[in-house]
Amino acid sequence: MMDRMVRTAMLDVQAYEEVERDRDATIQALLIVVLVALASAIGGGLAAGVSGVILGALTSIIGWLLFAGVSYWVGTTFFAGPQTRTSMGELLRATGFAQSPGVLRILGFIPIIGIIISLIVSVWVLIAVVIGVRQALDFDTWRAVATSLIAWIIQVVLIIITFAIL
Asked: Which among 22, 45, 110, 126 counts the fewest CB atoms within 10 Å?
């Protein structure tokens, strides 16, 4: 798992292809999402307390599931080409492993540098997610960017609506 985390963080396309095909890697992808949520909480100085860390982990998991699901729907409904062959599991694995650079958010507590690291990691994860979507959906880069952007917008709207209701 660690080797794949490093390779996907380094944007190794072959690593994304491996996790896409490896059905046993779905639990590993979930663990990465949780690990990144914990790293983010620690990097934030654990200001939210234990309940905040748990809520953050749950929110990260729900966000990951939602993003992968919406990406699947958008990608297979609006942008699918003749080469598009995928499953929800493939998107879960690819986008879960794409979160790997997020473990560096643990350094967020460092004054000034922590903010810079967090910004760099956010862009890094964004690029990794686009690569994950591209590989999982067998897309070109522009269709992967469009799918990821639309999925992200829908995800944010759904999360805002959910929190407004709750």
From this structure: 45
